[in-house]
Amino acid sequence: MSESPAPASLVQVRGVGHSYASRSGTREVLHDVSFDVAPGEFVCIVGPSGVGKTTILRDIAGLQRVTAGEVRVAGSVLTGPSSDIGLVFQDYSRSLMPWMSVRDNIALPLRGRMPKTDREQRVASAVHEVALDGHEEVRPWQLSGGMQQRVAIARALAFGAPVLLMDEPFASVDAQTRADLEDLALRVRDDTGQAVILITHDIDEAIYLSDRIIVLGGRPASVLEQVEVPFGPVREQLVTKALPEFGRLRTHVHTLIETASRAMTQATPVVDATR
Ligand SMILES: Nc1ncnc2c1ncn2[C@@H]1O[C@H](COP(=O)(O)OP(=O)(O)OP(=O)(O)O)[C@@H](O)[C@H]1O
Ligand SMILES: [Mg+2]
User: Fold this and answer.
1) pLDDT tens readout for residues 139-192
2) What is the pTM of this model?
3) pLDDT at 88 > cutoff 80
4) Buried b / exposed e along 36-68 (16+ C-beta atoms within 10 A)
5) Where are the domains of the chain?
6) Rounded mean pLDDT of 110-128?
7) How confident is the model over 23-50, as pLDDT tens digits?
8) Which CATH number is 1-42+53-81+165-170+196-275 given?
9) Nearest ligand to the CA atom of 58
10) How far is the CA of 186 from the centre of ligand 2 (A)?
């Protein structure tokens, strides 16, 4: 990553475009996507299926290169995976190593980065944060889905990056576990001051978790609207979701996505066969 002056925001997405090559040419999925995320902010990205949510998250993670614009993290232009970024994906069964204990899975990204005693301390504190004390020696497949996702969250926590990216992290668990994991994500943000960028299909989840919701739409996709969520840092499942403002936001975000989705199904894919 190249050096630059101190950042105004922790994550700066600036005019990002992303095109994928296909047999018939190049297809532009994202066009001129721009937004910022501040330290400690919780931002959810929503939009119709296939709009490009995972694409922008992978761009921010440095897992793939943007084809236009730039992503800056802590002021530096991203050119590949960064130690400033932790990741949690939907499919915990593929992200955890089945032959390793819970403890070793959590410690994995820390190997070679710090002395053993520091590593052990970080792992113990992450295990405690996600309430998995006493499960350190078992293998992930011996745990429930929700517990496995807590192991994945603990691994990202122990890694200690200032930015945490999550792609539909709670989509594969039951409703009660999902609510518990949402509250865990909020607690983690409060305790660590991490900025969280989370993708979800669930509008209620986005409103419940977010300080701000970024709605993607269009083909190619850009930011349709950034919706501020004015509930402050303290959220409570039943209370927050019963607020009249919650209902108003649900209708607003739902309408945005619905309209974007209809427009996408009517539009033909943009293929530039010359590239
Ligand atoms: N590696 C790739 N090569 C070619 N096309 C891709 C690639 N990854 C994604 N796409 C295409 O880019 C578009 C956006 O995909 P992406 O996975 O970012 O959408 P999404 O919003 O995350 O969708 P979902 O809500 O279903 O997870 C889709 O049309 C997809 O087929
Ligand atoms: Mg996706």
Assistant:
1) 999 999 999 999 999 998 899 899 999 999 888 888 988 999 999 999 989 988
2) 0.91
3) yes
4) bbeebbbbbbbbbeebbbbbbbbbbbbeeebbe
5) 1-42+53-81+165-170+196-275, 85-160
6) 92
7) 889 999 999 999 999 999 999 999 999 9
8) 3.40.50
9) 1
10) 22
Asked whether 20 lines ligand 1 (CB < 6 A), one says yes
Question: Rounded to the nearest whole angstrom, what is the distance from the C-alpha of residue 16 to the centroid of ligand 2?
Answer: 17
Ligand 1 and 52: CB distance under 6 A: yes
Mutate to test the pocket of ligand 1, among 51, 90, 264 (most ligand atoms within 8 A of CB): 51
CA distance 216 to 227: 11
Residue with tokens 């990216």: 165
152 in contact with ligand 1, CB cutoff 6 A: no
When the pLDDT of each residue in the chain is averaged and rounded to a whole number, the result is: 91
Ligand 2 centroid, distance to 258 Cα (angstroms): 17
Separation of alpha carbons 154 and 152, rounded Å: 5
Task: Count CA atoms within 13 Å of residue 178 on its CB side.
Answer: 16
The answer to whether the CB of 219 is under 6 A from ligand 1 is: no
